Amino acid sequence: MFRKWHLFTPGPVPVAPQVLLAGAVPTPHHRLPEFSALLSEIRRDLQYLFQTRRPVFFFASSGTGAMEAAVANLFSPGEKVLVVRGGKFGERWGEIAEGYGLLPVYLDVEWGKAVQAEEVKSRLDRDPEIRAVLVQAHETSTGVKHPVEELAAICRDKNVLLVVDAISALGVYPLPMDEWGIDVMVAGSQKSLALPPGLSFIAVSERAWSRVEKATLPRYYFDLRREWKAYQKETTAYTPAVSLLLSLQAALRLVRETGLEKLFAHYALVSEATRRAVRAMGLEVFPEVPCEALTVIRLPEEVDGGKLTRLLRERYGVVVAGGQGKLRGRVVRITHMGHQSPLEVVLALSALGLGLSEMGFPVKMEEGLAQALAFIGERGKEVYA
Ligand SMILES: *Cc1c(COP(=O)(O)O)cnc(C)c1O
């Protein structure tokens, strides 16, 4: 059959053909001089993307690897960290911290809500032993955006490190690492970087680097001290994911050509258009403070989310994500990340409307689509000028 899949999952995301093709060449050797030239271009462009003057390191792992690297490099056994836990990825910070023998203290946030910066501040006031705050910029499981800028200010004031999982946020909305004073920022390739899975990224502020030198947790592959030594010699400590780096070079060139401001404006536009459409259809946007990387939609009580996502996939080739953990079956998640043009989300919304109707829950589809189209048509004049 002439089946075409339209990927709207929050990782993996659609990848531009020229980015894929860039990696489809005979594998270059990673210790040759030409490869050093590639590395220095990539590293410079990553600094642009992270908005930092600090080195950005990468590993051959999924995003979780860089989260693990953050924990293993910054801390010593028994140290206390404050984990913002309002979704599946907040839980993961806690699991990694526990796995490494830290003492995570949890700030539990109701799923769908953003953490209150004030609450973080009062926790830090009450417990001076807390060394760091671990948080997501976008909690991809709920679609929430946490207030990173405010948290950064509080953490600097308290001399506590701020460790941000920006796996679904980097390049989607402004997260100027140096300007805001974010200590550690983590990213992954198959989310906002619009690449296939297999690369993770981490940058560490100067202030946090002194902790990397002193930390006593065990580490080997993820040891940033080894990577830094190699970095200074324009190489990597171990064999990097060579083909993916060729694709990364192409992806970062696209980012540079487009410019961060334009990228941010694109995501703001498409995510707002989607939220307007969802509400006009008579559905509910799940997160209270929604992020721009994806839209999480609450399903009517009676709808079986698993059945719905299967229907959209099998009937229309539209692949959306269901809920994770306690949101299983209760929400659908449509991503705006990756190689997508502005009107593609209309396809996802159309499939959602048709699917819900077929399952006996008709929505006001025409109103929804009209809202999205009007908004994109109007604002697009400026954003895509
Ligand atoms: C996807 C995701 C992760 C996990 O990344 P993997 O690449 O699957 O290891 C962690 N945090 C956030 C916010 C994510 O969106």
Largest sheet: 7 strands, mixed
Computed Rg: 21 Å
Write down the overall geometry: globular
Q: What percentage of the residues does DSSP assign to strands (E)?
A: 15-25%
Distance between the termini: 38 Å
Helix amount: 40-55%
**Poorly predicted residue ranges:** none
Q: Supply the number of structural domains.
A: 2
Query: What structural class is derived from the secondary structure elements?
Result: alpha/beta
Provide the CATH top-level class of the largest domain. Answer: Alpha Beta
**Count of β-strands:** 15
Bound molecules: pyridoxal-5'-phosphate
SSE ordering:
EHHEHEHEHEEEHEHEEHHHHEEHEEEHH
CATH fold description of the largest domain: Aspartate Aminotransferase, domain 2
CATH superfamily of the largest domain: Type I PLP-dependent aspartate aminotransferase-like (Major domain)
Secondary-structure topology with pairs:
Blueprint: E1 6-7, H1 17-23, H2 33-50, E2 56-59, H3 63-74, E3 80-85, H4 88-99, E4 103-108, H5 117-126, E5 130-136, E6 138-139, E7 144-145, H6 148-158, E8 161-165, H7 177-180, E9 184-188, E10 200-204, H8 206-214, H9 224-232, H10 242-258, H11 260-280, E11 284-285, E12 294-298, H12 305-316, E13 318-319, E14 321-322, E15 331-335, H13 344-358, H14 365-383
Parallel strand pairs: 1-13, 3-4, 3-5, 5-8, 8-9
Antiparallel strand pairs: 2-10, 6-7, 9-10, 11-12, 12-15, 14-15
The protein binds pyridoxal-5'-phosphate.
